[in-house]
Structure formats: C-alpha cells, structure tokens
Amino acid sequence: MEQQSNNPIKPQKQELLAPTQIDCKEFFLNNADEKLGNNLLFYRIQQKLSKTLQPGNFTISLSGKQKKEVKFVWLITNFSRINWGTYDPSNPKKEPLCRSLSGEIPDSGTEMRKTACGVCLDAKWHGRQKPPMCAEMFSQLCWDTEDNLPFIIGFKRTAISPLRKLKTYLQAETIRRKIKSPWLFAFKLKLTLLCVEEKGGYYLPVFDILEENKQEEMEMYMGYAKNLISTFVTIAPEEIASSEEEIQENSDTAQEEKTPF
Q1: pTM for the structure as a whole
Q2: What is the SS3 assignment for 166-185?
Q3: In a domain, 261, yes or no
C-alpha cells in the first residue's frame, strides 16, 4: 500500500491581477500597447451647476454620468502642487504658471518657480483668509466596489482636511483591530458630499467606513494597487484640475478658507 507523504506539496499562491490589467502583451505588436497609453477614469466632485450636470454629485469622465455616492477601497495616494495664477475669464484654458509632480520641487510651468515648494511664497498662507496661490493636490487611486473598476479622484483646498482625518482614523482602526494588512486595503468605504451653505455654497467630501475587508480581499486589493501603480504615477495635477470650473476655484483664493491641518 502506497504511503501518503507527510509533507504534501502546497499550491503556490499566484499574484492577483486586476481584471483590467491581466497581461496582454502578446496581443500588442510593435509597442502598440504603449502607443495607446493607459487611461483611468476620473471621478470629479461637481461643485457647480452646468447645462447637463448637477452639483453635489460625482461626475465620471468619458461617460459624463453622475453618481450620488461612491463605494470604494483606497489603493494609492499621490501628492502634487499646481499654481494656475489669477483666474482670467478671457483665457480659461491657460497653462499653469508652475507645477510640481512631487509636491516638493517645481518641474514645469509657464513661469516655473526656482525655489523648492517648501520655501516658495506662492505655497505659503498670507493670513487666515488668504490661502496659498499654489494649491496642494492629493490624487487618490481607488477601486469602485460596485462598478468593479479603478478610478482616480482628486482632493484640494478645503477637501484635504476630511481626507487627512480619514487617514488618521483608518490607521487607528487598523491598530485597534489588530489588522495585519496595510490600512489602505483594510476597509470598504463610502464617499458622499456635504453642501456647506456659505460663500456661495460648496461641497465637502464625507467618508464612512462600511465594513472591514476579509484577509483575502485585502490581498486582492493590494494586488490591484501593485498592477495599477505604473499607470497612476504619471498623473499630473492638471489632470485633476483641468476644467474651467476647477481652474477658477483653484485661483479664486478669496473664496477659500484655511483647513485646520
């Protein structure tokens, strides 16, 4: 009678790939894959009414559809800076004066500054009611758990404070619950918008924790992040704030107030 081994061979764990990022190189000849590029959907916070879009919703790029809420998992964060200068209605599509993909050293712009962002006067507050001309941008790569696809959303100005509070809370909850995976992949979240009825009215993000992910889900989302990071690192801040509405909002510093962080 054949004896069974005491050390059975265990199947090797395969790296999880995002459905949209499964290796297809053999089907793209002579660098066609790189020439087509890798574009991800943008979810933009709709601050103002337009002919076809309602404020207080998330507008999806390409399709133009809107969502009232987004259920997601946080994957990757990128920090950058952009300075549009003073808003000029006669030239709403102008190029930024200065931009920094790293948020630390300027890398381009029509009037690129020669100093590091940390000491640049455009990046400093001038009293409590006059924010910096150069806006901080936090671009988030997330996974929409309802539509099952990746998307990018940007937070700037007054929207940064809720994002920082969310990070602090998620880190604390990960420690309290003794979760072994990174806090980024530990929870399913919900994002909605709150209307602040002052200075003409604007919308702030509101985050809620829906549930803790199972261990295999955390590993799955970590795999998604690893496979999508090469696409995400090329995102420039003007991709997040490229429309006339966003440029005006970034430039109109008189309507913004300092966040407590």
Answers
A1: 0.79
A2: HHHHHHHHHHHCCCCCCHHH
A3: no
